[in-house]
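Researcher: Go.
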Amino acid sequence: MTFERTECAMHRLSPGVFPVSRPGPPVMLSGSARTPKNPDALFQEALVYLRESGFRVTKPREVIVRAAISFSEPFNAEDLLSAARRMDRMLLDSRLIREVELNREHRYYEVNREQSPAAFHIVCSDCRQVLQVQDECITLRERFLANSLGFKPLKLAVRIEAACLELLERGQCARKEALASSVAASAGSN
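Model: Structure:
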């Protein structure tokens, strides 16, 4: 690509302040004139920027930065989102993650760390906090029930919406207070 410096209105208004290009052949800039930054160096640069700007470095932000760095051509936010959606489908199909139905407004996912495809959650109706529950008895019972009816279970999603007993009995909930203070702290750092 060839670039040629020319005199502009700023040069005419303030002579001597802005350097004027010297007459001569146009300057050729090749891709090898500038060495591209290593992706790891770009990633570290982005993390430093986030920290210095007062942002928390979270896993989702790290993933977005890595995805953005991976593009070799210009891209827009929709490109980044569609790449994430394609990856989302692939991770679901491979059963590395599973969809968790916590509410009707948003989709949530979690890493499928167990051999069982079952996911159990308790959602607090007071503070909307989600607690993951592991109970082999529920898994065994659902398998027995499905097998006795002639089915092989593929997915089980148990979502229990419940009121906090501590809040009902004492008027305060340690989980709700901890959640409120962590939300306030993260809002202050963003």
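Model: The mean pLDDT is 75.
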